[in-house]
Amino acid sequence: MKMAHLLSALAVAMLATSVQGQAPAPAPASAATYPLQQPALPYQFWAQEPLIDNMTQMLHWTKHTATYFENVNKAIKPFPALQALTVEQMMPAIGTESIPMNISKAVRNNAGGVYNHLLFFKILMPATAQSNATNNSALPANIGQAINQTFGNYTVFKKNFTEAALSVFGSGWAWLTVAKNGSLAIETTPNQDNPLMVGAKYSGSQPILGIDVWEHAYYLKRQNRRPEYIEAWFYVVNWPQIDANYMAATGSNAAAITSYASA
Ligand SMILES: *[C@@H]1O[C@H](CO)[C@@H](O)[C@H](O)[C@H]1NC(C)=O
Ligand SMILES: *[C@@H]1O[C@H](CO)[C@@H](O)[C@H](O)[C@H]1NC(C)=O
Ligand SMILES: *[C@@H]1O[C@H](CO)[C@@H](O)[C@H](O)[C@H]1NC(C)=O
Ligand SMILES: *[C@@H]1O[C@H](CO)[C@@H](O)[C@H](O)[C@H]1NC(C)=O
Ligand SMILES: *[C@@H]1O[C@H](CO)[C@@H](O)[C@H](O)[C@H]1NC(C)=O
Ligand SMILES: *[C@@H]1O[C@H](CO)[C@@H](O)[C@H](O)[C@H]1NC(C)=O
Ligand SMILES: *[C@@H]1O[C@H](CO)[C@@H](O)[C@H](O)[C@H]1NC(C)=O
Ligand SMILES: *[C@@H]1O[C@H](CO)[C@@H](O)[C@H](O)[C@H]1NC(C)=O
Ligand SMILES: [Fe+2]
């Protein structure tokens, strides 16, 4: 354990604090630090059938997502200072010298993969109880008003978000984010990057909704038909959860967005 790494971890914690402008939220009750543990999903892998299929969800969670957990744990194994951080606290450190150089790529890809997939699976709901929100009056009040304010209405938001998700070349993500001043924006990131990492377009903004447009998220059922996947995905977005995420992002508890402690 080198002193430099201890100091780095301190810097990471302080950075996380200053980025949020307030004390970090208390860590969720579940094992939120090393070894990062994949939680249980609050629904079955077939819950989004037929819109998103059982096998895709199963492989996506038990293989792809599990591998990100495994590999981030492997990378930070020699670094106790990084082990003290939750995956949420790691995000603003990615792209900075706080992450030792020989694991910076592994942490970027795999801690990023963990964070992104926790968010992705948390904002989905079973197709049987879906909101099928096709217009803004069906959305919960807080996020509904914010979407109206930024985009005019839900239809415009959906169109813009779809265009963003289609514009991602190769593998990556499209996000709905909350900036530090509370305003909404749509952003895209390549690979397993996200807007919390240093170097993103509006770096430091908080994602509250994200779609994975890696082919592993849709190829089995829909092959190369990404537009069809995006349209189907919209039907199983859990808007009450997005509303809660929006309130958490504008309040003081961004860590709740990716926490499964109460799921
Ligand atoms: C989902 O897939 C798993 C694994 O193939 C299978 O055991 C299960 O029966 C499937 N469930 C449904 C509802 O299709
Ligand atoms: C990174 O360096 C540390 C020593 O500082 C070493 O323990 C670890 O095995 C290295 N990791 C990789 C992936 O090279
Ligand atoms: C929601 O929309 C999907 C896709 O059009 C449809 O399959 C499903 O039956 C709808 N569910 C409800 C409850 O309206
Ligand atoms: C919008 O959604 C609300 C609530 O689901 C529904 O009552 C209303 O008919 C919808 N309006 C349009 C224009 O689709
Ligand atoms: C958003 O605007 C639409 C009209 O474009 C309106 O029907 C809806 O009630 C508004 N939603 C909220 C949450 O204010
Ligand atoms: C939505 O997309 C339209 C058309 O590309 C663009 O003019 C507008 O600025 C976008 N709005 C937001 C809030 O991103
Ligand atoms: C949403 O806003 C656009 C642009 O102002 C408008 O053309 C469209 O009719 C609106 N849709 C709804 C459902 O209000
Ligand atoms: C809020 O911050 C975003 C991103 O930094 C910026 O684009 C936007 O103009 C700001 N909005 C206000 C009302 O200051
Ligand atoms: Fe994925």
TrEMBL record:
It is an enzyme of class 1 (oxidoreductase). Its EC number is 1.15.1.1. It comes from the Eukaryota. Residues 142-244 form the Manganese/iron superoxide dismutase C-terminal domain. Residues 39-124 form the Manganese/iron superoxide dismutase N-terminal domain. GO terms for cellular component: cytoplasm. Mn(2+) binds at H60, H117, D212, H216. It holds the Pfam family Sod_Fe_N. InterPro entries: Mn/Fe_SOD (IPR001189), Mn/Fe_SOD_BS (IPR019833), Mn/Fe_SOD_C (IPR019832), Mn/Fe_SOD_N (IPR019831), Mn/Fe_SOD_N_sf (IPR036324), SOD_C_sf (IPR036314). The keyword Oxidoreductase applies. Keywords: Metal-binding, Oxidoreductase, Signal. GO terms for molecular function: metal ion binding; superoxide dismutase activity. The keyword Signal applies. Residues 1-21 form the signal peptide. Belongs to the iron/manganese superoxide dismutase family. This is superoxide dismutase.
